Amino acid sequence: MPRPGRRELAFLAGAIVIATAASAQTAGGPKLLPADQAFKLSARALDAKSVEVRFNVADGYYLYRDKLRFKIEPAPVAAGAPALPPGKPHKDEFFGESITYRGLLVVKLPIAGAKPGQAVTLIADSQGCADAGVCYPPQTQRVELTLPVAGAGASITVEATPPRKDYFK
What we know:
Layout: H1 6-26, H2 35-38, E1 39-47, E2 50-57, E3 61-64, E4 69-73, E5 78-79, E6 88-92, E7 96-101, E8 104-112, E9 119-126, E10 128-130, E11 134-135, E12 139-146, E13 158-159
Antiparallel strand pairs: 1-2, 1-13, 2-8, 3-7, 3-10, 4-9, 5-8, 6-7, 9-12, 10-11
């Protein structure tokens, strides 16, 4: 019998996580926050070439560094490599040795191909867990931003729109 690949193992781990979370919620387990509250996303455009992304991670929760992905739309606008802080080492039964973030995570994201005054959408993919032993499925959050015109300073901070589906209600 062939050994399962990384993709199959990740799918299996995700299925176990979702099942564990569902049973914890229905069996009188810990009361978990919805993902968009546990990992609250906001962003602001600093100028036409950079965006500041913020995750306000609730107490008792953490985000995985290697599960963070950022994208800017519409094309041809593109996100560069994010400037991520060091984070803290964490040993996890599902993902092994990982780097995680707690509290306020601030990421500077360079962007290319944008024009001052242009409306863009930041798309942030993330995954995190609760200290209660429950991990959330991967999340995608979106923030609509207007890049400031030259000399106007940074835009106001905008929170992510709520996701369409919440697994923990």
